[in-house]
Every structure is written in structure tokens, then in C-alpha cells.
Amino acid sequence: MKRGTILFVFILLIASITLKAQNELLTNFSLFYEYHKNKDFQSALPYGWKVVNTDPSQFLKYKIFSRMEEALWYLHDSSNVSDQEKMAIKDTMNYFYDKAIQYESNLAGFYTARKAYVKEVWNNSDPNEIIKIYESALEKDAALPTFYKDRLGMLYVNNASDENEYKLKALDLYSKLAEEEADNPVWNQKLESIAENIEELVDITKKSWDFDKENPEKAWKYAATCIKAQDFEKAKEPLEFLTIKAPEVINYWKQLASVYDKLEMTDKATSAYKKLIELQPDNRDNYVNIALVYKKLEQLSVSRTYLQKAMNIDSNWDYPVLIEAQLYEQSARSCEFDFMAKCVYLLAVSSYRKAAGMGGQFATTASDRVKALQNSIPTKEDYFFRKLKSGDTIKIEGACYAWIGRSVNVP
């Protein structure tokens, strides 16, 4: 027989074998599919394994791996399957998930998490090994269902020791879950349960940041925990780091300004509030907050200037009007109690009445101050002896009140 004829016959033979194998593969999948559809999982599995072990790639669109998994899980949990058969299923699951990960790269994270879960629940494997598999799953797919993230979190907590960083990792994981699902109280509860008390939680978040000092997310978690614990001195460092790292983030400046204020670091507080005003020139709160700092510094004229800016932004807001009244009251208290002081109290009362009349959140507070100051304002006799009549204008003046530059009218 000629060489060309032999080659042709060989090609036909190979083609015949390939076609036979392909037909056999199609037959196995068809049988698997039909048995699976009819919920006869025990009959389906042998044919499914033949497909998985040969070439499952052409059957991915028919969800070969998810159907196989359904069959395997059903039989594992079935009361009609012997312990020996269940043990065989357990022994093959690791291999099955490796195959699924190999062929379905888009679901690699999911199948890796399923592999970890089976090792955890079915096989009771070494927790450290399971943790590594869950971590690998999250690396492959950060958007895994929270069920698997929680399983990993519980493993971290249950196996934490001084020799590992599981406690820190649990804190980080549940912190992310709490941020992702802000309306779910479970994650904050778990977060708080990791530490025996809030002080330990502060220490944990600090260690987490110390291990990764350039990480702004960890710095923020440390700062937020310190603020929650009202440990403002410790909150200062991470917040200062964050404002340097991300100087345009408003919330960082807002928290830092508040911390400076609480620590009575007034110069730094005013600088931080000025930065906020630069970032948010139309935010009324920033002007009131800096006004309150200047009020504490007894720089009452500067404080009033910022209050006026807040009023210009929102003329219906009663709070800056209330604070302005407090400025006048504060000024009168710090000076000699004479007729002019009484007139300044009258100016304060007029401002409190204005705040009360606006019907806002502070209406009751303002009304209470009007009543409280009734014995501090000028009496009829004060006006009579000075020959002042109703409607006359009295200019607020004197060294003690030079900053005010206002007048009051005789009632």
C-alpha cells in the first residue's frame, strides 16, 4: 500500500475515533441532563463525572458545574444515601471544586468559597487551612455574598490568638461589612463583640493602622473608634494624617476641627474650620462652628461676623440668632452691672425674642432666656431718671461694649 493511502486511512481512523469520543461525550451529557432534570441525581452523577473528567468546556452554557454541585449536595444531605456513599462524595468535593475553578474562571471566587465551606462544615478541616481558602476566594471576588465573609469572620474570631493577626483581620472584615450594609446592625454588633470593651477596640484599630501606616482606610477606622470612645487625644493623630493624605475630603476636616475644639486647641480648631469654609463656602454649619470657637475665646466681634455669614446663607435658621444673643449676654456679664449693662441685656433679650419668633428648633430655649433676663434689663425707673421715653433710641457705648455698635429702643 502506498504511503499516501496509508496516511489517508490513518486520518480517517483518527477522525472516526474523535467522532466516536465526541458522540460518547454528548451522550453522557444528555443522560446526565435528563436524569438531573427528573431529580434522579444518583443516576445522573456517573454520567456527569464522565463529562467533567473528559471535557466540560463545551457544556458550560448548560451549567454543568452548578447542576453537578446540586446533585452532589442533594445526595450528601439525603437520608437515602449510605454513610459510605456520603464519605465518597466528601472525598471528591475538593477535586470537583478545583475542576469548576479551572473551567469557570468568572466564578472562581464563588467556587473557592464553596470549597472552603465544604472543608469547614463537611470535613471539619484545619481552621487555618480553611481561612486561607476563604481569603483566596475573597481575593478572586471581593463581591462574594456576605454569608461567606461572615463565615471567614467567625473563623478569625474563634481562632484568634497572640500569635496571629486574626483579631485584626476580623475587625477589618466586619468594619467593611458595616460600611457596605450601613442599615444592618448585625455587623456593628459583631464588630463590638470582637473586643471586650471600647478601649480594647481602640487598641485593636491602632495596631491595625500601625501595621499599615500609609493606609487611609485603617487610619479612618482608628479615628472613628477613638471618637466613639471619646478619646479625642488619640483621634487627633489619624485625623491629621488623613487631612494631609486627602486634603479635599470634607469629613476628615470636620472631625479634626471638632476634635481640636474638644481638646481646646482653639488655634488649630479655627484653622480647621477655615479650611472647611474654603472647601464648603455655602455650608452654614461651618460658620456657626467657628463662631462658637471665637465665642469661647471671647473674641465676640469675630464670632458675630461669622454668625452673620451663617444667617446670610440661611435667613430662616434660628441657631445663629440664638448664639448672637448669647454673645450680648456674655458681654454684659463680663462688665460692671450698670445702666449700660442693662441695655446690653435688653439687646440680648431682643435677639432672643427674634430667635423665639422664628419658630425653629431653639424657640423654647430662646423664650426661656427672655424670661430669665427680665430682672437684668432696665426698669421704668431707669428710664424715668434718665428722662427717656418710649421709642427713644439708646446707643450701646463704652469701652466694655465698643465691639457691639448697636442701639436699643426704650419699650
Overview in brief:
Helices cover 72% and strands 1% of the residues. It has 20 helices and 2 strands. A two-stranded antiparallel ribbon has the order 1-2.
Features:
411 residues; mainly alpha; two-stranded antiparallel ribbon
Can you offer a commentary on this structure?
- There is one protein chain.
- Helix 8 packs across helix 10 and helix 16 runs antiparallel to helix 17 (319-333).
- The protein is mainly α and 411 residues long.
- Helices cover 72% and strands 1% of the residues.
- The chain has a two-stranded antiparallel sheet.
Strand content: under 5%
Strand count, sense and closure of the main sheet? 2 strands, antiparallel
Task: List the helices and strands in order.
Answer: HHHHHHHHHHHHHHHHHHHHEE
| Number of H/I helices | 20
